[in-house]
Amino acid sequence: MNHSATVHASAWSRLRFRVLALALGAMLVAVLPLLFTTRYSTNLLILGAAMGIGTLGLVVVLGYAGQISLAQAAFYGIGAYAAALGTTHWGINWWVAVVLGLVAAAVAGGILGTATLKLGGHYLAMTTICFQVIFTLIATNWITFTGGPDGISNIKRPPFFIPLNSVQRYAWFALAALYLVAGLVWWLRDTDLGRAMRAIRENELAAEALGINTPRIKVIAFTLSAVLGALGGTIYASGYLYISPDSFNFDHAVLFLAMALVGGTESFLGAILGASLLTFLPEWLRDLKKIYLVIYGCVIILVIVFMPEGLWGYVKLLGRRFARRRLLPPAERPLQVGRGVAGEEILYVVGLVKRFGGLVAVDKVDLVVRRGEIHALIGPNGSGKTTYINLLSGLYAPTSGSIRFLGKDVAGLRPSRIASSGMARSFQNLRLFRELTVWENVLVGAKRAGGNETETKGRALAAIEFAGLSDKAYEICRSLPYGHQKLVELARAIAGEPELLLLDEPGAGLNQTEKQELIRLLRRLNEMGLTIVIVEHDMSLVSRVAATATVLNFGKKIAEGTIDEVLRHPAVVEAYLGNREVALGV
Amino acid sequence: MAENLSMNGQLVFAGLAIGSVYALVALGFVMIFRATNVVNFAQGEFSMLGAYFLVALWQGLKLDYFAAIALALLLMVGIGLLFEITVYYPLRNRTFLPVIIATIGASIMFQNGALAIFGSSPEKVRPVIETVGGTGGVTVAGVFFDYQYLIILAVAVLLVGLQYLFFEYTLLGKKMQATSQDKDMARLLGIPVVYMIALTFIYSSLLGGLSGMLVAPIFFVTHKMGATLGLKAFAATICGGFGDVRGAIVGGLALGVIESFGSAYISAVYKDAFSFLVLIVILLVRPQGIFGEKVSEKA
Amino acid sequence: MFEIRDVHVAYGAVMALRGISLEVNEKEIVCLLGANGAGKSTTLRTVSGLLHPLRGEVLLGGQPIHRLSAEAIAKRGISQVPEGRRVFPGLTVRENMILGTSNRSGVRREEMEADMAKLFEIFPDLERLKHAHGWTLSGGQQQMLAIARGLMARPHILLMDEPSLGLAPILVQEVFRVIKDINATGAMTILLVEQNATMALAISHRGYVMETGRIVLQGPAKDLLQNLQVRDAYLGGGKRML
Question: What is the ipTM of this complex?
Answer without folding.
Answer: 0.90
